[in-house]
Write a structure and sequence with these properties.
alpha/beta; two-stranded antiparallel sheet; 19 helices
Protein backbone atom coordinates (compact mmCIF):
# COMPACT_ATOMS: atom_id res chain seq x y z
CA UNK A 1 0.00 0.00 0.00
CA UNK A 2 1.30 3.44 -0.94
CA UNK A 3 1.99 5.61 2.07
CA UNK A 4 1.42 9.34 2.08
CA UNK A 5 4.00 11.96 3.05
CA UNK A 6 1.37 14.32 4.41
CA UNK A 7 -2.40 14.57 4.75
CA UNK A 8 -4.70 17.50 4.02
CA UNK A 9 -7.99 18.07 5.83
CA UNK A 10 -10.20 20.56 4.00
CA UNK A 11 -10.60 20.70 0.24
CA UNK A 12 -11.81 24.20 -0.45
CA UNK A 13 -9.87 26.04 -3.13
CA UNK A 14 -6.77 26.72 -0.96
CA UNK A 15 -6.61 23.13 0.25
CA UNK A 16 -7.00 21.68 -3.23
CA UNK A 17 -4.37 23.96 -4.73
CA UNK A 18 -1.83 23.26 -1.99
CA UNK A 19 -2.37 19.51 -2.41
CA UNK A 20 -1.74 19.73 -6.17
CA UNK A 21 1.30 21.90 -5.51
CA UNK A 22 2.67 19.21 -3.17
CA UNK A 23 1.95 16.51 -5.75
CA UNK A 24 3.76 18.53 -8.42
CA UNK A 25 6.85 18.44 -6.20
CA UNK A 26 6.82 14.68 -5.77
CA UNK A 27 5.00 14.32 -2.46
CA UNK A 28 2.22 11.80 -1.95
CA UNK A 29 -0.77 13.41 -0.27
CA UNK A 30 -3.77 11.83 1.45
CA UNK A 31 -6.89 13.99 1.46
CA UNK A 32 -9.98 14.14 3.65
CA UNK A 33 -13.00 16.41 3.64
CA UNK A 34 -15.98 16.38 5.97
CA UNK A 35 -18.28 16.24 2.91
CA UNK A 36 -16.85 13.08 1.40
CA UNK A 37 -18.27 13.69 -2.08
CA UNK A 38 -15.82 16.59 -2.35
CA UNK A 39 -12.97 14.07 -2.02
CA UNK A 40 -14.24 12.07 -4.99
CA UNK A 41 -14.90 15.18 -7.08
CA UNK A 42 -11.33 16.36 -6.41
CA UNK A 43 -9.40 13.14 -7.08
CA UNK A 44 -11.48 12.38 -10.17
CA UNK A 45 -11.44 15.97 -11.39
CA UNK A 46 -8.65 18.57 -10.96
CA UNK A 47 -6.29 16.09 -9.28
CA UNK A 48 -6.93 13.12 -11.57
CA UNK A 49 -3.76 11.17 -12.29
CA UNK A 50 -1.70 12.97 -9.62
CA UNK A 51 -1.44 9.99 -7.26
CA UNK A 52 -3.42 11.64 -4.49
CA UNK A 53 -4.90 9.20 -1.95
CA UNK A 54 -8.60 9.70 -1.15
CA UNK A 55 -9.73 8.89 2.40
CA UNK A 56 -13.19 8.98 3.91
CA UNK A 57 -12.50 9.05 7.64
CA UNK A 58 -9.81 10.51 9.84
CA UNK A 59 -8.82 7.02 10.93
CA UNK A 60 -8.36 5.90 7.33
CA UNK A 61 -6.38 9.07 6.63
CA UNK A 62 -4.07 8.49 9.61
CA UNK A 63 -3.46 4.88 8.55
CA UNK A 64 -2.05 6.00 5.18
CA UNK A 65 0.65 8.25 6.62
CA UNK A 66 4.38 7.70 7.03
CA UNK A 67 5.77 8.41 10.50
CA UNK A 68 5.98 10.90 11.95
CA UNK A 69 2.50 11.56 10.66
CA UNK A 70 2.01 15.05 9.23
CA UNK A 71 -1.62 16.20 9.16
CA UNK A 72 -2.41 19.66 7.78
CA UNK A 73 -5.74 21.43 8.20
CA UNK A 74 -7.09 24.15 5.96
CA UNK A 75 -10.45 24.72 7.59
CA UNK A 76 -12.33 27.74 8.90
CA UNK A 77 -10.60 29.44 11.83
CA UNK A 78 -12.05 29.09 15.31
CA UNK A 79 -14.05 26.16 16.63
CA UNK A 80 -13.61 23.94 13.53
CA UNK A 81 -9.86 23.87 14.17
CA UNK A 82 -10.37 22.90 17.83
CA UNK A 83 -12.85 20.23 16.83
CA UNK A 84 -10.46 18.56 14.41
CA UNK A 85 -7.61 18.72 16.94
CA UNK A 86 -9.81 16.94 19.50
CA UNK A 87 -10.62 14.22 16.94
CA UNK A 88 -7.02 13.83 15.77
CA UNK A 89 -5.26 13.51 19.13
CA UNK A 90 -6.68 10.05 19.97
CA UNK A 91 -5.72 8.57 16.59
CA UNK A 92 -2.18 9.96 16.40
CA UNK A 93 0.97 8.91 18.26
CA UNK A 94 3.62 10.86 20.20
CA UNK A 95 5.80 12.84 17.82
CA UNK A 96 3.12 13.14 15.14
CA UNK A 97 2.46 16.65 13.83
CA UNK A 98 -0.78 18.61 13.48
CA UNK A 99 -0.55 21.68 11.22
CA UNK A 100 -3.05 24.54 11.01
CA UNK A 101 -2.58 26.37 7.73
CA UNK A 102 -5.60 28.65 8.11
CA UNK A 103 -5.89 32.25 9.26
CA UNK A 104 -6.10 31.46 12.97
CA UNK A 105 -5.62 34.05 15.67
CA UNK A 106 -2.11 33.70 17.09
CA UNK A 107 -3.44 33.60 20.66
CA UNK A 108 -5.46 30.50 19.73
CA UNK A 109 -2.29 28.99 18.27
CA UNK A 110 -0.36 29.65 21.49
CA UNK A 111 -3.09 27.84 23.42
CA UNK A 112 -3.33 24.96 20.94
CA UNK A 113 0.44 24.42 20.82
CA UNK A 114 0.55 23.99 24.59
CA UNK A 115 -2.47 21.67 24.59
CA UNK A 116 -1.20 19.45 21.78
CA UNK A 117 2.32 19.26 23.19
CA UNK A 118 0.85 18.23 26.55
CA UNK A 119 -0.52 15.14 24.76
CA UNK A 120 2.93 14.28 23.39
CA UNK A 121 2.26 15.51 19.86
CA UNK A 122 3.72 18.46 17.97
CA UNK A 123 1.82 21.46 16.60
CA UNK A 124 2.45 23.98 13.84
CA UNK A 125 0.54 27.17 13.09
CA UNK A 126 1.56 28.15 9.55
CA UNK A 127 0.49 31.38 7.92
CA UNK A 128 -0.03 30.84 4.19
CA UNK A 129 -0.25 33.84 1.88
CA UNK A 130 -0.72 34.23 -1.84
CA UNK A 131 -4.36 33.33 -2.39
CA UNK A 132 -5.45 30.67 -4.87
CA UNK A 133 -2.63 31.29 -7.35
CA UNK A 134 0.02 31.27 -4.66
CA UNK A 135 -1.27 28.04 -3.13
CA UNK A 136 -1.15 26.34 -6.52
CA UNK A 137 2.19 27.62 -7.80
CA UNK A 138 4.14 28.82 -4.75
CA UNK A 139 2.88 30.66 -1.66
CA UNK A 140 4.70 32.40 1.14
CA UNK A 141 4.57 30.13 4.19
CA UNK A 142 5.25 31.31 7.75
CA UNK A 143 5.47 28.31 10.13
CA UNK A 144 5.69 28.55 13.90
CA UNK A 145 4.85 26.29 16.82
CA UNK A 146 6.74 23.24 18.15
CA UNK A 147 10.38 23.65 17.02
CA UNK A 148 10.88 19.87 16.99
CA UNK A 149 8.34 19.60 14.17
CA UNK A 150 10.18 21.84 11.72
CA UNK A 151 12.78 19.31 10.41
CA UNK A 152 9.93 16.99 9.36
CA UNK A 153 8.05 19.77 7.56
CA UNK A 154 10.91 21.79 6.12
CA UNK A 155 11.46 19.64 2.98
CA UNK A 156 7.78 19.83 2.01
CA UNK A 157 7.09 23.46 2.84
CA UNK A 158 10.26 24.83 1.30
CA UNK A 159 9.72 22.76 -1.86
CA UNK A 160 6.20 24.11 -2.47
CA UNK A 161 6.90 27.72 -1.43
CA UNK A 162 7.55 30.56 -3.85
CA UNK A 163 11.20 31.14 -4.75
CA UNK A 164 13.21 34.36 -4.97
CA UNK A 165 14.03 35.33 -7.67
CA UNK A 166 10.45 34.59 -8.70
CA UNK A 167 10.05 31.16 -10.21
CA UNK A 168 13.72 30.21 -9.80
CA UNK A 169 13.74 26.56 -8.57
CA UNK A 170 17.18 27.16 -7.06
CA UNK A 171 16.22 30.47 -5.47
CA UNK A 172 15.67 31.11 -1.77
CA UNK A 173 12.32 29.67 -0.63
CA UNK A 174 9.78 32.11 0.76
CA UNK A 175 9.41 29.89 3.79
CA UNK A 176 11.53 29.39 6.90
CA UNK A 177 11.05 28.75 10.58
CA UNK A 178 9.50 31.80 12.25
CA UNK A 179 9.40 30.98 15.96
CA UNK A 180 7.74 29.29 18.87
CA UNK A 181 4.00 28.60 19.43
CA UNK A 182 1.96 31.43 17.86
CA UNK A 183 4.81 33.22 16.07
CA UNK A 184 3.93 31.98 12.58
CA UNK A 185 0.33 33.09 12.77
CA UNK A 186 1.37 36.37 14.39
CA UNK A 187 3.73 37.17 11.51
CA UNK A 188 0.99 36.24 9.01
CA UNK A 189 -1.39 38.57 10.89
CA UNK A 190 1.12 41.44 10.66
CA UNK A 191 1.56 40.63 6.96
CA UNK A 192 -2.19 41.03 6.50
CA UNK A 193 -2.21 44.28 8.48
CA UNK A 194 0.57 45.69 6.29
CA UNK A 195 -1.46 44.52 3.28
CA UNK A 196 -4.38 46.65 4.55
CA UNK A 197 -2.01 49.62 4.77
CA UNK A 198 -0.51 49.11 1.31
CA UNK A 199 -3.96 48.87 -0.25
CA UNK A 200 -5.15 52.02 1.51
CA UNK A 201 -2.08 53.98 0.40
CA UNK A 202 -2.68 52.92 -3.21
CA UNK A 203 -6.39 53.75 -2.94
CA UNK A 204 -5.52 57.25 -1.72
CA UNK A 205 -3.09 57.72 -4.60
CA UNK A 206 -5.88 56.63 -6.97
CA UNK A 207 -8.22 59.18 -5.36
CA UNK A 208 -5.68 61.98 -5.82
CA UNK A 209 -5.06 60.97 -9.44
CA UNK A 210 -8.77 60.69 -10.25
CA UNK A 211 -10.38 63.51 -8.29
CA UNK A 212 -7.43 65.85 -7.88
CA UNK A 213 -5.72 65.59 -11.26
CA UNK A 214 -8.69 64.39 -13.30
CA UNK A 215 -6.81 61.51 -14.90
CA UNK A 216 -8.71 58.94 -16.94
CA UNK A 217 -8.53 55.25 -16.15
CA UNK A 218 -6.20 54.68 -19.07
CA UNK A 219 -3.93 57.48 -17.88
CA UNK A 220 -3.93 56.00 -14.38
CA UNK A 221 -3.10 52.57 -15.80
CA UNK A 222 -0.07 54.18 -17.41
CA UNK A 223 0.97 55.85 -14.14
CA UNK A 224 0.70 52.65 -12.10
CA UNK A 225 2.50 50.79 -14.87
CA UNK A 226 5.38 53.26 -14.70
CA UNK A 227 5.48 53.00 -10.91
CA UNK A 228 5.72 49.23 -11.24
CA UNK A 229 9.07 49.57 -12.99
CA UNK A 230 10.73 51.45 -10.12
CA UNK A 231 10.98 51.34 -6.34
CA UNK A 232 7.24 50.68 -6.03
CA UNK A 233 7.38 47.50 -8.13
CA UNK A 234 5.01 45.09 -6.37
CA UNK A 235 2.08 42.76 -6.84
CA UNK A 236 -0.46 45.31 -5.57
CA UNK A 237 0.78 48.08 -7.89
CA UNK A 238 0.79 45.59 -10.76
CA UNK A 239 -2.81 44.49 -10.24
CA UNK A 240 -3.90 48.11 -9.76
CA UNK A 241 -2.48 48.86 -13.22
CA UNK A 242 -4.43 45.92 -14.60
CA UNK A 243 -7.66 46.95 -12.83
CA UNK A 244 -7.41 50.46 -14.29
CA UNK A 245 -7.09 49.03 -17.79
CA UNK A 246 -9.79 46.38 -17.55
CA UNK A 247 -12.99 46.75 -19.59
CA UNK A 248 -16.02 44.46 -19.89
CA UNK A 249 -17.52 43.30 -23.17
CA UNK A 250 -19.31 46.66 -23.51
CA UNK A 251 -16.16 48.71 -22.97
CA UNK A 252 -17.23 49.69 -19.43
CA UNK A 253 -14.47 50.12 -16.84
CA UNK A 254 -15.44 47.68 -14.09
CA UNK A 255 -13.68 49.70 -11.37
CA UNK A 256 -16.09 52.59 -12.01
CA UNK A 257 -19.19 50.52 -11.23
CA UNK A 258 -17.94 48.80 -8.08
CA UNK A 259 -19.65 50.06 -4.91
CA UNK A 260 -17.19 52.03 -2.78
CA UNK A 261 -17.72 49.92 0.36
CA UNK A 262 -14.68 47.85 1.32
CA UNK A 263 -15.04 44.55 3.15
CA UNK A 264 -12.65 42.81 5.52
CA UNK A 265 -12.21 39.43 7.19
CA UNK A 266 -10.78 40.65 10.49
CA UNK A 267 -7.01 40.17 10.38
CA UNK A 268 -6.48 43.93 10.05
CA UNK A 269 -8.51 44.46 13.21
CA UNK A 270 -6.51 41.75 14.97
CA UNK A 271 -3.29 43.53 14.01
CA UNK A 272 -4.49 46.87 15.34
CA UNK A 273 -5.81 45.23 18.52
CA UNK A 274 -2.44 43.57 19.07
CA UNK A 275 -0.68 46.90 18.53
CA UNK A 276 -2.90 48.47 21.20
CA UNK A 277 -2.05 45.62 23.58
CA UNK A 278 1.67 46.00 22.85
CA UNK A 279 1.64 49.81 23.03
CA UNK A 280 2.97 50.08 19.46
CA UNK A 281 2.00 53.09 17.27
CA UNK A 282 0.63 51.15 14.29
CA UNK A 283 -1.07 54.29 13.04
CA UNK A 284 -1.19 53.63 9.30
CA UNK A 285 -2.78 50.17 9.54
CA UNK A 286 -5.22 51.60 12.09
CA UNK A 287 -6.26 54.29 9.62
CA UNK A 288 -6.59 51.68 6.88
CA UNK A 289 -8.98 49.62 9.02
CA UNK A 290 -11.00 52.70 9.98
CA UNK A 291 -11.11 53.80 6.33
CA UNK A 292 -12.84 50.52 5.48
CA UNK A 293 -15.33 51.09 8.29
CA UNK A 294 -16.00 54.60 7.00
CA UNK A 295 -16.39 53.36 3.43
CA UNK A 296 -19.18 51.06 4.58
CA UNK A 297 -21.29 54.08 5.65
CA UNK A 298 -22.58 54.47 2.09
CA UNK A 299 -26.02 55.89 2.95
CA UNK A 300 -24.69 58.26 5.60
CA UNK A 301 -21.98 59.54 3.27
CA UNK A 302 -24.51 60.09 0.51
CA UNK A 303 -26.64 62.18 2.87
CA UNK A 304 -23.60 64.11 4.13
CA UNK A 305 -22.40 64.85 0.60
CA UNK A 306 -25.57 66.81 -0.06
CA UNK A 307 -25.24 69.11 2.96
CA UNK A 308 -21.62 69.35 4.13
CA UNK A 309 -19.50 71.88 2.21
CA UNK A 310 -15.88 71.45 1.18
CA UNK A 311 -13.38 72.33 -1.53
CA UNK A 312 -14.32 71.28 -5.06
CA UNK A 313 -11.37 72.69 -6.99
CA UNK A 314 -9.04 70.55 -9.06
CA UNK A 315 -5.27 70.71 -8.99
CA UNK A 316 -3.98 73.52 -11.18
CA UNK A 317 -0.23 73.26 -10.73
CA UNK A 318 2.46 71.30 -12.54
CA UNK A 319 0.90 67.88 -13.22
CA UNK A 320 4.22 66.15 -13.95
CA UNK A 321 5.68 67.51 -10.73
CA UNK A 322 2.77 66.35 -8.54
CA UNK A 323 2.86 62.91 -10.20
CA UNK A 324 6.54 62.61 -9.29
CA UNK A 325 5.75 63.83 -5.77
CA UNK A 326 2.93 61.31 -5.38
CA UNK A 327 5.19 58.40 -6.30
CA UNK A 328 7.65 59.47 -3.60
CA UNK A 329 4.87 60.04 -1.07
CA UNK A 330 3.47 56.55 -1.64
CA UNK A 331 6.94 55.08 -1.15
CA UNK A 332 7.62 57.07 2.02
CA UNK A 333 4.29 56.09 3.55
CA UNK A 334 5.01 52.46 2.68
CA UNK A 335 8.36 52.66 4.46
CA UNK A 336 6.70 54.18 7.53
CA UNK A 337 4.06 51.44 7.55
CA UNK A 338 6.61 48.62 7.39
CA UNK A 339 8.67 50.32 10.09
CA UNK A 340 5.57 50.25 12.30
CA UNK A 341 4.87 46.61 11.46
CA UNK A 342 8.42 45.65 12.38
CA UNK A 343 8.11 47.60 15.62
CA UNK A 344 5.07 45.47 16.44
CA UNK A 345 6.85 42.20 15.64
CA UNK A 346 9.87 43.20 17.73
CA UNK A 347 7.62 44.12 20.66
CA UNK A 348 5.65 40.87 20.43
CA UNK A 349 8.85 38.81 20.21
CA UNK A 350 9.94 40.29 23.54
CA UNK A 351 6.52 39.81 25.13
CA UNK A 352 6.11 36.19 24.03
CA UNK A 353 9.72 35.05 24.07
CA UNK A 354 9.91 34.46 20.32
CA UNK A 355 13.20 34.48 18.44
CA UNK A 356 12.08 36.17 15.25
CA UNK A 357 14.46 36.53 12.32
CA UNK A 358 13.24 39.93 11.14
CA UNK A 359 15.36 40.00 7.99
CA UNK A 360 14.31 36.45 7.16
CA UNK A 361 10.65 37.44 7.47
CA UNK A 362 11.11 40.07 4.77
CA UNK A 363 12.69 37.41 2.56
CA UNK A 364 9.66 35.15 3.10
CA UNK A 365 7.46 38.00 1.90
CA UNK A 366 9.53 38.64 -1.25
CA UNK A 367 7.50 36.17 -3.30
CA UNK A 368 4.23 34.29 -3.31
CA UNK A 369 2.33 36.63 -1.00
CA UNK A 370 0.06 39.62 -1.58
CA UNK A 371 2.58 42.22 -0.35
CA UNK A 372 5.46 40.82 -2.42
CA UNK A 373 7.66 43.59 -3.79
CA UNK A 374 11.25 44.51 -4.59
CA UNK A 375 11.09 46.84 -1.59
CA UNK A 376 11.28 43.87 0.80
CA UNK A 377 14.76 43.02 -0.39
CA UNK A 378 15.94 46.32 1.10
CA UNK A 379 14.52 45.27 4.48
CA UNK A 380 16.44 41.98 4.35
CA UNK A 381 19.60 43.90 3.45
CA UNK A 382 19.05 46.30 6.35
CA UNK A 383 18.81 43.49 8.91
CA UNK A 384 21.68 41.57 7.31
CA UNK A 385 23.84 44.66 7.75
CA UNK A 386 22.65 45.24 11.33
CA UNK A 387 20.81 42.31 12.99
CA UNK A 388 20.22 44.50 16.07
CA UNK A 389 18.61 47.32 14.06
CA UNK A 390 16.03 48.90 16.37
CA UNK A 391 13.94 50.56 13.67
CA UNK A 392 13.87 50.41 9.88
CA UNK A 393 13.84 54.20 9.67
CA UNK A 394 17.34 54.23 11.15
CA UNK A 395 18.84 51.98 8.47
CA UNK A 396 20.97 54.06 6.05
CA UNK A 397 18.96 53.13 2.95
CA UNK A 398 15.58 53.97 4.47
CA UNK A 399 16.89 57.05 6.24
CA UNK A 400 18.14 58.38 2.90
CA UNK A 401 14.88 57.40 1.14
CA UNK A 402 12.78 59.26 3.70
CA UNK A 403 15.03 62.30 3.50
CA UNK A 404 14.73 62.33 -0.30
CA UNK A 405 10.93 61.99 -0.19
CA UNK A 406 10.32 64.50 2.60
CA UNK A 407 9.37 67.54 0.54
CA UNK A 408 7.30 65.58 -2.00
CA UNK A 409 5.39 63.81 0.76
CA UNK A 410 4.46 67.08 2.44
CA UNK A 411 3.40 68.70 -0.82
CA UNK A 412 1.08 65.78 -1.65
CA UNK A 413 -0.58 65.77 1.77
CA UNK A 414 -0.94 69.57 1.70
CA UNK A 415 -2.43 69.52 -1.79
CA UNK A 416 -4.88 66.76 -0.85
CA UNK A 417 -6.01 68.69 2.22
CA UNK A 418 -6.54 71.84 0.18
CA UNK A 419 -8.55 69.88 -2.40
CA UNK A 420 -10.63 68.14 0.25
CA UNK A 421 -9.41 64.67 -0.73
CA UNK A 422 -9.03 62.38 2.31
CA UNK A 423 -5.59 60.79 2.66
CA UNK A 424 -5.66 59.28 6.17
CA UNK A 425 -2.90 56.75 5.52
CA UNK A 426 -0.52 59.16 3.77
CA UNK A 427 -1.07 61.86 6.40
CA UNK A 428 -0.98 59.61 9.48
CA UNK A 429 2.26 58.07 8.24
CA UNK A 430 3.72 61.56 7.87
CA UNK A 431 2.57 62.47 11.39
CA UNK A 432 4.20 59.28 12.72
CA UNK A 433 7.43 60.13 10.90
CA UNK A 434 7.44 63.67 12.25
CA UNK A 435 6.77 62.39 15.76
CA UNK A 436 9.42 59.67 15.58
CA UNK A 437 12.11 62.05 14.35
CA UNK A 438 11.56 64.59 17.16
CA UNK A 439 13.62 64.37 20.31
CA UNK A 440 10.91 66.14 22.29
CA UNK A 441 7.12 65.88 21.92
CA UNK A 442 4.34 67.75 23.79
CA UNK A 443 3.57 64.69 25.93
CA UNK A 444 5.12 66.56 28.87
CA UNK A 445 1.97 68.70 28.91
CA UNK A 446 -0.23 65.60 28.66
CA UNK A 447 1.56 64.08 31.63
CA UNK A 448 1.24 67.33 33.60
CA UNK A 449 -2.50 67.32 32.95
CA UNK A 450 -2.77 63.69 34.09
CA UNK A 451 -0.90 64.52 37.25
CA UNK A 452 -3.05 67.64 37.83
CA UNK A 453 -6.42 65.89 37.68
CA UNK A 454 -5.46 62.34 38.70
CA UNK A 455 -2.12 62.48 40.56
CA UNK A 456 -0.68 60.04 38.00
CA UNK A 457 2.91 61.30 38.55
CA UNK A 458 5.59 62.11 35.99
CA UNK A 459 9.29 61.67 35.31
CA UNK A 460 11.69 64.62 34.96
CA UNK A 461 14.31 65.31 32.31
CA UNK A 462 16.71 66.49 35.03
CA UNK A 463 16.41 63.25 37.03
CA UNK A 464 17.21 59.60 36.17
CA UNK A 465 14.52 57.56 34.42
CA UNK A 466 12.46 55.52 36.84
CA UNK A 467 12.02 58.26 39.44
CA UNK A 468 8.45 59.57 39.68
CA UNK A 469 7.20 62.89 40.98
CA UNK A 470 3.89 64.52 41.83
CA UNK A 471 3.07 68.22 42.07
CA UNK A 472 0.33 69.62 44.30
CA UNK A 473 -0.83 71.88 41.47
CA UNK A 474 -3.71 73.56 43.30
CA UNK A 475 -2.17 73.81 46.74
CA UNK A 476 -4.87 71.62 48.27
CA UNK A 477 -4.47 68.39 46.30
CA UNK A 478 -2.19 66.61 48.77
CA UNK A 479 0.80 64.33 48.23
CA UNK A 480 -0.99 61.00 47.68
CA UNK A 481 -0.55 59.66 44.12
CA UNK A 482 -2.51 57.23 41.96
CA UNK A 483 0.63 55.13 41.38
CA UNK A 484 -0.63 54.32 37.91
CA UNK A 485 2.09 55.90 35.76
CA UNK A 486 2.66 54.05 32.51
CA UNK A 487 5.37 55.06 30.05
Amino acid sequence: MTQADIAMIGLAVMGQNLVMNMADHGFTVAVYNRTTSVVDDFVNGPAKGMGIIPTYSLEEMAATLKRPRRVMMLVKAGQPVDSFIERLIPILDPGDIIIDGGNSNYEDTIRRTAAVEAKGLLYIGAGVSGGEEGARHGPSIMPGGSPAAWPALKPIFQAIAAKVPEGDPDGAPCCDWVGENGAGHFVKMVHNGIEYGDMQIIAEAYHVLKEGLGLSNDEMATVFGQWNTGTLESYLIEITRDIMGYRDEHGQAIVDVILDSAGQKGTGKWTVSSALDQGTPLTLVGEAVFARFLSALVDERTEAAAVLPGPTASFTGDRAAILADLEQAVYAAKVASYAQGYMLMRSAATAYGWHLNLGGIALMWRGGCIIRSVFLGKITEAFDADPELSNLLLAPYFRDAMTAADGAWRRVVASAVQLGIPVPALSSALAFYDSFRRQRLPANLTQAQRDYFGAHTYERIDRPRGQFFHTNWTGHGGDVTARAYQA
